[in-house]
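Troubleshooting: if your tokenizer reports a length mismatch, compare against these two reference records.
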Amino acid sequence: METIRSTLQPVTHNLPAPIRDLGISLLGGTCYQTLILDLDPSATECLKLAISKGLGVAIVGASAVVKVPQILKLLNSKSAAGVSFLSYLLETSAMLIGLAYNVRQAFPFSTYGETAFMMVQNVVICVLVLQYSGRTTTAALFVAGLAAGATALFSREVVDSNMLSYLQAGAGVLGVASKLPQIAAIWQEGGTGQLSAFAVFNFLIGSLARVFTTMQEVDDPLILYGFIAGFALNAVIAAQMVYYWNAPSEKAKGKQREKPIAPASGKSKATPKGKSPTTRRRG
């Protein structure tokens, strides 16, 4: 260990200023000194903090594209089959409240940053689902309502801190409830339709990692319990994705049943016209 330390310390002690400043802002002065400058991995608390920060940054980075495959799948198929608008509506509402709560509580961005990116992608998905369901007017009303809600939540004059705490408690329930319509939609369809497997499994992994980062960096049970419950229901959706992986939906099965049976090819064995069977006995 001493050999490794003596080899790496000249590098860690001479990091460029932007990298050094970023490390200190993420880990704090004490843990930066312990882990980066002293290269001491035996400091358990600092090591947990470093892992948490690394996961948090990775989650925020991945969240920028986690639902892009779902958006592309909707655009390519021009269909919203298997995707529940109610599920995305509830999830987006919960994300908006959670984002306002975290920002106003001044929690580290690495503990909630993905909420902002995923909320924007959710809005796009909601608009596409409504559009492909023939409800364009509802899509416009949805966007307008969301903008009005955001203005109110981020304004301390409109929504005070106590009210926002109550809303955050409700957001945890909304976040959990948002998974139920999607679970029901998959069950009713008998398949996952246009639901993106990439988004589902990445969301599952991200929600598990977020449980860990919240336990390490955020002393707020309201947020922690919401992430735990969300992970459990994300696991159910992921299990449905695996179960229905190759199964056609009920609508697809219905279309298959409605297909007319093609006439058999080859020569017909019907009796030719003009030649009827005779009943005269042959001598």
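Reference record two:
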Amino acid sequence: MAQQEASSQPQGFKNHIQNVAIVGAGGNCGKFMAEALLGTGKHVVSAITRAESTTQLPDGVQVKRVNYDDQSSIVEALRGQDALIITMGVTAPKDQEAKLIEAAAEAGVSWVFPNEWSPDMANESLAKDTLLGDGKKKHRDLVAKLGKSSWIAVSTGFWYEWSLALSAAYGFDFANRAVTLFDDGETPISTSTFAQVGRAMAALLSLKIHADGEDDDSPCIDRFKNGYVYVASFTVSQKDMLESVLRVTQTSLDDWKVTKESVQGRYAAGMEQMKRGDRMGFVKVMYSRVFYPDDSGNVEKTRGLQNDALGLSKEDLDECTKIAIRRAEVHGDRGY
């Protein structure tokens, strides 16, 4: 679709996003988005939350309470919003995202950021094998079908501090000083911290919407319309992660039990666990697939990152590893 120019918009058009609604503004990633957006001084941030919710929200966030059984309450909460960001956990009701997208269309919300925050779902093989693709495509397609909003999917890879703390994910068991390397542990994947994605969303939503003219090639939101934005904190292998862990914990390799497992065998084992009703099997399936040696988890190589275009700063791997280890100490191997 041809990009529009700001000069071609009707009188009174504002070439920036001001009002942003977030679903999950008190959650693991949503709170970082809300804080980063507010920190720009350019946005009014509203949390779309259930009437009975007691979740603590960042200071400065406006609260709009809804009843998901009353679609009109969602529509009313979204009126006047320029953008809707949806962040939801896997336990959220399966029809909730569709209700939000439909309400956004009715309320006239121009931009919808669906619940992506994942590895590259534009890679059809990866989307299929991780069992994530169908649900995410369904919601992107719903935005397009309704025809009132445009969508932007933000591909982040898996969350670094969450995934490193979970043994079924990146293979590290901190309580027992054990690590399972998939194949040789040298396959690089792109992964993001919650804070980096918060900064990415603030930077993205602070861009002008349309180019100022045909000679303006600076970043604008319209360039990502109905497509993907790829961001990451690091592109690292398990061995890179292990070296960081050794530095942070001031331990040596001899202090750890290191085993190796075929990544495809791990994927197959995860599928068998799922058949037995073990939800950790799903975690193994998702994570092992991005470590296949086909570069599907390495979007820095296959797609290129928008980090520079968004002005994202470099992060310190060891500092982020410290956060993951503290998370493991507090939450154990549950992840929450």
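Descriptive notes for reference record two:
- The chain has a mean pLDDT of 95.
- The two ends are 42 Å apart (CA to CA).
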